Amino acid sequence: TNNNDQTWFDIVGSFHSDALHMVERWTYVAQDRIDYEVTIEDPKVFTRPWKMGWNYGRNPTEEQWEN
Questions:
Q1: Contact criterion met (CB below 8 Å) for 37 and 24
Q2: Nearest CA to 59 among 40, 29, 31?
Q3: Is the model more confident about 24 or about 58?
Q4: Is-contact 40 26, C-beta < 8 A?
Q5: Is 37 exposed, middle or buried (CB count within 10 Å of its CB: 0-12, 13-18, 19+)?
Q6: Is the pLDDT of residue 1 over 70?
Q7: Confidence band (pLDDT; 50, 70, 90) for 66?
Q8: End-to-end CA distance of the chain
Q9: What is d(CA 37, CA 26) in angstroms, rounded to the nearest whole number?
């Protein structure tokens, strides 16, 4: 959602076309961990789908905020 001609996927400014399709997965792994994975498909830009992901841990000393 909200991908437009200003959207980047990484710090080097990888771009996309109007054929972009993304699937994001957020997985609650444990009380203190959430895993994130995204699969990016854009046949006009990339030769095959690619994935990237991160693991997020909860810091018990910090307050959690949500917008």
A1: yes
A2: 31
A3: 24
A4: no
A5: middle
A6: no
A7: confident
A8: 16
A9: 7
Domain ranges of the chain: 1-58
pTM of the full structure = 0.71
Mean of the pLDDT values across residues 16-21?
Answer: 88
Joined tokens for residue 10:
């990484």
Q: Which of 42, 6, 7 is nearest to 23 (CA)?
A: 42
User: Contact, 38 vs 23, CB < 8 A?
Assistant: yes
The percent of residues above 70 in pLDDT, for the chain, comes to 94
**Could you give the CA distance from residue 63 to residue 51 in angstroms, rounded to a whole number?**
30
Burial of 17 from C-beta contacts in 10 A (0-12 / 13-18 / 19+):
exposed
Helical ranges in the chain per DSSP H? none
